[in-house]
Description:
- By secondary structure, the protein is mainly α.
- The protein has helices at 7-25, 32-39, 43-49, 53-73, 81-90, 97-111, 117-140, 148-167, 172-192.
- It has one domain: Tetracycline Repressor, domain 2 (Orthogonal Bundle).
- It contains 9 helices and no strands.
Amino acid sequence: MPKLIDLEQRREEIAEALWRVVERDGVAAVSVRRVADEAGLALGSLRHVFATRADLLTFSTELMLQKVTERLRQVHPHADVEEHAVELLEHLIPLTAASRAEFAVNLALYAEAPAVPEIGIARDRAMAALRQGCERMVHQLGVAAERVELEGRRLHALLDGLALHLSSTDDEGEADWARQVLAEEVHRLHAAKS
């Protein structure tokens, strides 16, 4: 009797193998064969799940974005609105070795958008969601309605800049500095309220 597999679990395992290849060798090294080898699968088994490299890259990008969203949803609200905002924001920048690796893979996958338009669609959807999330956070911090869009975009840009800065270092002092920058920005937004 053939062994039954959980297709969704298999898809995630293959995506994680792709992430390892990208992290170790770069996105140019990604091929269906290389990812199959990394996942310990026969090429035919991988092709049964993902027919093309584009399908594999697209799913891997969307899964990474889904995992970030799930982490954010697990952050429980605090009575202190500033503390809650900082905790959420810390999940959006690469403060640890694991999140730096995730960010590097994410950037590499985004670089494939010209070749795989579906990645560009996922990237654009993620960027819009992040911008909207920043605007909601700014609103919750009490910023006046007419300044929410501007301050939300400013917060989004700060997150992008911190993420790029942190992606190239494993210095714990830099991570502490980034946490402080986020805390100060959240406090500035909450204190301004107009």
